Amino acid sequence: MAKLPKQDELLDFSFDVPKTGWMHTPTEFKEGMYCYGTKPKNLEVVGMPNGHDWSPADEDWHLPEGWKDIVLNGMEDLMKKYRSFKLYMDVCVRCGACADKCHFYQGTGDPKNMPVVRAELLRSVYRRYFTTSGKLLGELVGARDLTEDVIKEWHYYFYQCTECRRCSVFCPYGIDQAEITLMGRELLNLLGLNTEWIAGPVANCYMKGNHVGLEPQTIMSNIEFLMEDLQDITGKAINPSFNRKGAEILFVVPSGDLYAEPGTYTFMGYMLLFEQLGLDYTLSTYASEGGNFGFFTANDMAKRLNAKMYAEAKRLGVKWILGGECGHMWRLVNQYMDTWNGPADFLEVPVSPITGTRFENAASTKMVHITEFTADLLYHDKIKVDPSRNDHLVVTYHDSCNTSRAMGLLEEPRYIINKVCNHFHEMPEETIREKTLCCGSGSGLNAGENMELRMRGGFPRANAVRHVRDKYGVNTLANICALDRASFPALMDYWVPGTKVMGVHELVGNALVLDGEGERTLDLRLEELPKKPAPASAGDAGATSDGEGGTDHV
Ligand code: SF4
Ligand code: SF4
Questions:
Q1: Residue 171: nearest ligand to its CA?
Q2: What architecture is the 7-30+49-193 domain classified under in CATH?
Q3: Quick check: CB of 116 below 6 Å from ligand 2?
Q4: Which stretches does the entry tag as region Disordered (predicted)?
Q5: Nearest CA to ligand 2 atom 1
Q6: Of the four listed, 33, 110, 187, 353, which is most buried by Cβ atoms within 10 Å?
Q7: CATH number listed for the domain at residues 209-379
Q8: What is the pTM assigned to this prediction?
Q9: Whole-number Cα distances in Å, 269 to 53, 171, 176, 291
Q10: Alpha-carbon span 303 to 337, nearest angstrom
Q11: What three-state secondary structure class fits 366?
């Protein structure tokens, strides 16, 4: 594994115009900037074609016989299947509005990380083989031949895009670069060229129901272990419900919350909340993954993995699904579920059994995000919280790309944080809400071998955290995405050391006052709580107003 450069070495690059045009600048595979290649067995498990041994660092990628026809036929198929693909190939006017909006461009200075150029990698081939002008005029109209070097370039740069869609917010035509990247990855998959960090979790999820391949008994024993900690903290014995037919609600979390810190603390927060409410819910040890690495592979793969949540809801006979703090699970549920696996007519429109709120926004998907559910509880004063238990934390909030841009979940997390914490500060406006900056590790890039890429891509977000640390003393980065909880600890350690990474429901769990509970002395990390709540300063009061004031459905 490549050694991670020091901060000043990493930032020692320029945005100068390169000497050669992008078409004539060869791709250099730099260690630390790419993920390892797929092992054939993980493609075979899910029936994906042309699995073979290869490495991005090799000169010869052992492409299958007829590889060029495979790709061009695949491109033609995609154009027939997805009107958006053809549209995105044709309508870009190269205005450049997106050019400097990508965190990978901001963190590398590499022109091929400008969204407009990243799309041109694919468009140039589309023009050459599928447009008359491209066939006749070639490079004059931005067309080029499909060669092995082009395939390598696609792999390098389509796995340097986190499909975060920030660039799309600024595009006057609404061109969705994440869709283009996904199509590029689909074409590479036809040649057996994925990354192991994505293909492995896809195979695990297909076989075992979650990305790391946790067996049902492992999931249950992990959770029992967490419940023992909760008993030490609160004095309450909590007995989660597993695979229970006839429960009202199926609760699905990203599997990272089941086994890896700091996600496990978020999970403990969910469990405390449900215990206090007496909620009629069940977890499934089979549909044990809300995340979906299939989406980082190909549309059909994502559709296959998404189906399990709904199949399990049907098997257990629940009324609706409550989902945990995950990012891309929600993009898929909100933007793709209906046409992939829907409509979920066998389920009911979700109604909170505690407040009676009917979640009309989930009338079709029948799936409610836990922050929608909890914000509604707080709005109706159905739970008692003591925000002073979080007084040792000065919190900022990272809008996960998928929940903010793909489902507009902007106010609910802020509303909750403002209720359960006394010290909350927003990062600069151009880095939050729809314009949020990516963690730099989404879409399956959170591997270990590409750490330089992750630190570069995450730099703009980390820089905004550093800003609020210096200005307000922020020491905690709250979020509602499992990939954020997995990737931010390394990013913070590198750029903003000392910053804790926390799911919003960890903050809720800390603050939640349970019926009959004595004074709590430990937080969910088993660390001492502050003895006396510190009074909020005047400066804090003025900085917390953004999330105040209700939501569409409450
Ligand atoms: S989707 Fe995100 S990572 Fe991809 S090009 Fe756009 S801004 Fe960059
Ligand atoms: S902003 Fe849209 S139209 Fe302009 S260059 Fe970028 S993708 Fe093309």
A1: 2
A2: Orthogonal Bundle (1.10)
A3: yes
A4: 530-554
A5: 171
A6: 187
A7: 1.20.1050
A8: 0.94
A9: 43, 39, 35, 19
A10: 8
A11: coil
